[in-house]
Amino acid sequence: MHKGTFTLAALLCLQVSYAQQSLSPSGPSVKRTTYYVDNTTGNDANDGKSMERPWLGIEKVNAAVFKPGDSILFKSGGIWTGTLKPQGSGLPGHPIVIGSYGKSTARPIINGNGALLVVHLQNVQYVELTNFEITNPVNPNTLKRGIEVENVDQGKLTHIVLRNNFVHDIAGDNSKGKNGSAGILVVARRKAGMVPSWYDSVLVEGNIVKNVNRTGIGTNSEWYCRASVNCKGVQPYRPHTNVVIRNNYVENAGGDGIVASVSTGTLVEYNMLNGANTNSGQFNAGIWSWDGDNNLFQFNEAYNVKTTKDGEGFDIDFGQDSTIFQYNYSHDNEGGFMVVCAPGPHLNTNGIIRYNISQNDRERIIHLTGAVSGVLIHNNTFYLPEGETTTPVWMGKWNNYPVSASFYNNIFYLKSARPWKTWDSLRTSVFEYNIIYGAHTAGEPKGKGNLTIDPQLMAPGMATSGSLVNGIIHFGNVEGYKLKKTSPALRKGKVISNNGSRDYWGNPVSATEIPNIGAYNGKGER
After folding, report:
1. From CA 452, how far away is CA 439, in angstroms rounded?
2. Is the backbone of residue 87 left (phi > 0), alpha (psi -120 to 50) or beta?
């Protein structure tokens, strides 16, 4: 999975086709104009079309209506106060770009100074915002958002890019959801027009989000209503589509870290979350989704999520079908590694949790609660150290008990543990070809092909925490969870046909050949 670091340049190579979509010329020829804004030498009486005659303030920018291909560039290191709300939309191949210029490496700063919104992209499309510092520390504990991308009664809006911004100290309150406080929020709302609305093709990439209430990065919508969330309203379901949240660093989110709500086919990858649910006192998790199908979460690291009010690193919440969490690293989260939940009659079906690593997650490693069904949990490696009072698998009741879940090819390396809480629901679940090594406690499930022998991990418990150094994400080192050449877990698992085709480290996984048990499918180390 992770190779230690992940730079923006490498990220762009992975998604070059998406990036080129915003830069390749297409459609009608347009006249491109670049506007400059300088908070020291500017004058709003200027035309703003050269570095020698820049505008001064964001009020001048807000009053203009920009055209496809235009750029609005703020002087690097400059400081502006208030809300930036540019108007106008681009066209395919000709986005409006809001960025920076100058020799300074410092980003231009927009300070909301207590306003509700610092940057507001309302009812626009083909717009790219890049390389700003955004903050709003004034009047703490009031509703605030750093960047809000808002679609009100516009139907489908497309192509929004938020890249390489530093959003920090958004001193919001703990209000939750589509109208809550956030560092970055992409949202569709209903007003007088009542036009079903959503975003298509949103890229949130390479941003740093620190010290924000309530949510770090999120999507949401008022067009959320469908049966899987037990909604019988008349408004149609219009989820966001083609959303990519990639290579972002979120630290000290007061509530949720990264949330894809009312969003289907979403890709959330290569993000690092260091600290969530730090002060809200509500039920929050690290990286998760709600009310959207076929979402994919991979190559993320989540740690330091607080409290046991959820408090897990990851979450497949209700209103979903076929969401996948794979190749993620979770550690030191007070609530555990993963919760899968659905308060019946809400639905949560066919979630897949595979090839992940969990180290030192507490309270419960895996928490299944409510009427979840068809959950497939395979080829993960879980580690608990000495002295932990953690439940390995906790099946709880949220109006209903879990309906069905299958556990295959997982390693539970437990130096200590509380009893398993599998309840009667285990009768409709399967637990086979797993290794439970170390602490054996009450409720431990039985099944075909299970082992209790030492799996011979290279260095269990020695994985490190990831970090952000000079704006570059360095993922934690998890090499200790590979298997030794003498491991009894080699080629002892159950064949899973739909297995993602690779393990955590990129080793191939066959759809027909017997795999290893655990997150490593190589031939063994040393």
Report:
1. 10
2. beta
